[in-house]
TrEMBL record:
InterPro entries: GH, GH_1_N_CS, Glyco_hydro_1. Pfam families: Glyco_hydro_1 (PF00232). It comes from Nesidiocoris tenuis. It comes from the Eukaryota. This is Glycoside hydrolases. The lineage of its organism: Eukaryota, Metazoa, Ecdysozoa, Arthropoda, Hexapoda.
């Protein structure tokens, strides 16, 4: 419709008396805002390897993959992974060649603090690795986007009162964050405290990830989530108090599958809102507003009471904690992969966060399936998500911290579906920016290279570079999508 209209209108304008004043519309749709941070992303356990280099501590992923090998497809683990611990200079060379302006990577907590605690001393080798990595990025003009926690908790902290269930864990995390800020605050402008709290809590009420404490469902995920929020807010406060003169920005990386209503009915519209609040909103709302969204509060309190409990399964924040949480993000890091359609219904373990939400989800038949059962291609959900956060939270700055497409690598370099995925998602971002006014400042593709994909081992491949896991060199090879991205970034970066 729009295309037809412009065909009709443009000649009229040109032939009229205003012809000399006619200016073509800004070419906004083919561009990105100046300085848009195109980049790529990885995470420590998924790419580093060197799991026991010198004095590195064991992480919960080292532990679970070694002690329960069947937890992972083909009994794989991240002992060597992409060997980025030894090959980071090559990684930086290849990302520079693509034209990436930023690199989102994570720091392995136990690599720097073997027991997890600053008081027990740090690893010189571990710290040195990240110093060299950051310096090499800066020397190559690539902005480091640093995640402090991407799921590899020190095993010692898991054994001490249950990791993220431990009431002291937020202080340990804040100490760790303080230590990293003290080393790198002058060099790092974007910090992500914690990657995907929603995924982390899946390890404390489900067996989707380490430490796989499924038996705690309905309780563990809320306690872990609560402590993750406190940990984030303490790290944020600390940065403001001691390091803010460095002008860095801090957020979490939030995730979920964006939920649209399955129909126009009020019930489905409400179900989609519950679905949002129980995923993205679970963590975004407290970080921006100070406390859980009223929907979570009332539903979980009610369900807990109905189950005959004296206290809610969703813990309460103190006033002081609310004050500290409120506004504890300078931008929103959003991980977007896919979307769902929502309607009312009961699903998931009883009790569990999923069941509490009273939502069942389905796929639109037009969304193409991928090798990952949870991921279908639906770029429109990204535009909807960007509009949702714009409307609900006063148009905050957004960095898309993950976005990507999995395949099985059967035709490893000829990944045209991945190109299609990025093309359509970039288009959705441009529409969100130029038609809807959303404040998106960057995008990091997941992932720079194929890597250890958690429970799927090395079977699901998200990289724009393929990695030869049979070779000790872990040779990286450009896929077609990498060529495409290189060209795409060059074309969109001429302003
Ligand atoms: C991200 O999580 C991670 O940050 C990253 O480390 C990972 O490599 C990347 O995605 C690709 O997976 O199987 O139905 O239980 C993405 C969010 C949410 C994806 C939970 C998998 C499990 C769905 N994840 N989800 S299911």
């Amino acid at each position: 419709m729009r295309a037809i209209l412009s065909l009709v209108i443009v000649p009229l304008v040109l032939s009229g008396s205003f012809a000399t004043q006619y200016r073509p519309p800004p070419v906004s749709h083919t561009n990105f805002p100046k300085g848009f941070l195109f980049g790529s992303a990885t995470a420590s356990y998924q790419v580093e390897g060197a799991w026991n280099d010198t004095d590195k501590g064991e992480s919960i992923w080292d532990h679970i993959t070694h002690n329960n090998p069947n937890f992972i497809a083909e009994q794989q683990n991240g002992d060597i992974a992409d060997d980025s611990f030894h090959k980071f200079k090559e990684d930086i060379r290849i990302m520079k060649d693509i034209g990436f302006k930023s690199y989102r990577f994570s720091i392995s907590w136990p690599r720097v603090l073997p027991t997890g605690k600053v008081a027990d001393g740090y690893s010189k080798t571990g710290l040195n690795y990240y110093t060299e990595l950051i310096d090499e990025l800066l020397a190559n003009g690539i902005e480091p986007l640093v995640t402090l926690y991407h799921w590899d908790l020190p095993q010692a902290l898991q054994e001490e009162r249950g990791g993220w269930l431990n009431p002291n864990i937020s202080d340990y995390f804040a100490d760790y964050a303080d230590f990293m800020f003290s080393k790198f605050a002058p060099k790092v402008k974007y910090w992500i405290t914690i990657n995907e709290p929603l995924s982390i809590v899946n390890g404390y009420g489900d067996d989707a990830r380490a430490p796989a404490l499924k038996e705690l469902h309905g309780i563990g995920e809320y306690v872990a989530g609560h402590n993750l929020l406190l940990a984030h807010s303490k790290a944020y406060k600390l940065y403001q108090d001691k390091y803010s003169h460095n002008l860095g920005k801090i957020s979490m990386a939030f995730c979920g599958s964006y939920c649209a209503p399955a129909s126009d009915s009020v019930e489905d519209i409400e179900a989609a809102e519950r679905c949002y609040q129980f995923t993205f909103g679970w963590f975004i709302h407290p970080v921006l507003k100070g406390d859980y969204h009223p929907l979570l509060r009332s539903i979980i309190d009610e369900n807990s009471q109905w189950e005959g409990r004296k206290t809610s399964r969703l813990p309460y924040f103190s006033q002081q904690e609310i004050d500290q949480l409120k506004g504890s993000a300078d931008f929103l890091g959003l991980n977007y992969y896919t979307m769902l359609l929502a309607k009312p219904g009961l699903a998931g373990l009883d009790p569990s966060d999923q069941r509490d939400s009273r939502v069942v989800t389905l796929w639109d038949p037009s969304w193409k399936p991928t090798v990952a059962s949870w991921l279908r291609v639906a770029p429109e959900g990204l535009r909807m998500l960007l509009n949702k956060v714009k409307n609900d939270y006063g148009n905050p700055e957004v960095l898309i911290t993950e976005n990507g497409y999995p395949d099985d690598g059967s035709d490893p370099l000829n990944d045209t579906e991945r190109i299609n995925y990025y093309e359509t998602h970039f288009a959705a971002i441009r529409q969100a920016i130029y038609e809807d006014g959303c404040n998106v400042v960057g995008h990091t593709s997941w992932s720079l290279m194929d890597n250890f994909e958690w429970r799927d081992g090395y079977k699901a491949k998200f990289g724009i570079f393929s990695v030869d896991f049979n070779s000790p060199n872990r040779t990286r090879t450009m896929k077609k999508s990498a060529y495409w991205l290189k060209n795409y970034i060059a074309m969109h970066d001429y302003l």
